[in-house]
Write a structure and sequence with these properties.
Layout lengths: L2 H8 L21 H10 L3 E3 L4 E3 L12 H4 L17 E5 L5 E5 L2 E5 L6 E5 L2 H10 L1 H5 L1 H11 L6 E5 L14 E5 H15 L19
Antiparallel strand pairs: 1-2, 2-3, 3-4, 4-5, 5-6, 7-8
Length: 214
């Protein structure tokens, strides 16, 4: 059994029926055919108590966002400017860090900073990394504890820090709340764009809403 097969085996039911799928988006990436194969076998899913969320290719019969919508310019990715250029976001962890395809393989995208970290050369390797340490890679412990205290997360929501981690917020259940995934990414994009040029340790004042003139 491959690592991808094992991940699919232990995950939820498909989030949507497998429909005809326009492959133009996936064809831009060397690993696009591998992602297509995963979605043909299971069209989107949750795993590890919803900590890992893989987007379906369509939202038909599913309350949530699909792969094309999530990667469109109308939701959140343009708020990051050129930090999302050349990336295809196909999955996310419980705290909204994203897993994405690039020309060079699978990257991890830090939602609060907009930075990327190389993760795997193929989706089989990505699945192996997830399975080997799903606590660290998906934030499973936060998903499990928060839902035990507050009930199941609704589709289209993720856990978000009340005080951003980048600004010293603690990695604790007390610092987490469940919010709309799109709005969460827009807020994090704003944070990333306001802090991207600052050296580590710089004191910051985050401006919410309309920005003052320079």
């Amino acid at each position: 059994m491959t690592r991808i097969e094992k991940l699919l085996l232990i995950s939820s039911e498909p989030l949507a029926r497998t429909p005809p799928f326009d492959t133009e988006l996936l064809n831009r990436f060397p690993l696009g055919s591998e992602l297509m194969s995963i979605l043909e076998n299971k069209n989107g899913f949750y795993a590890f108590e919803s900590a890992l969320h893989v987007f379906p290719s369509t939202s038909e019969s599913f309350l949530g966002t699909n792969l094309i919508e999530w990667n469109s310019d109308s939701l959140w990715r343009t708020d990051y400017g050129d930090l999302t250029s050349g990336l295809l976001f196909f999955a996310e962890d419980i705290l909204q860090d994203q897993f994405c395809l690039s020309i060079s393989g699978v990257l991890r995208f830090n939602a609060e900073t907009g930075g990327t970290t190389p993760m795997a050369a193929a989706l089989e390797e990505w699945a192996a990394i997830i399975l080997r340490d799903y606590g660290a890679e998906t934030g499973w412990q936060f998903a499990s504890r928060w839902q035990a205290e507050n009930g199941p997360l609704l589709p289209g929501t993720r856990l978000m820090p009340k005080t951003p981690f980048l600004l010293g917020g603690s990695y604790s259940i007390e610092n987490l709340w469940a919010g709309d995934a799109v709005e969460g990414m827009r807020f994090k994009a704003d944070l990333a764009m306001q802090t991207k040029s600052l050296p580590n340790g710089t004191e910051v004042r985050i401006v919410l809403g309309e920005k003052p003139p320079n």
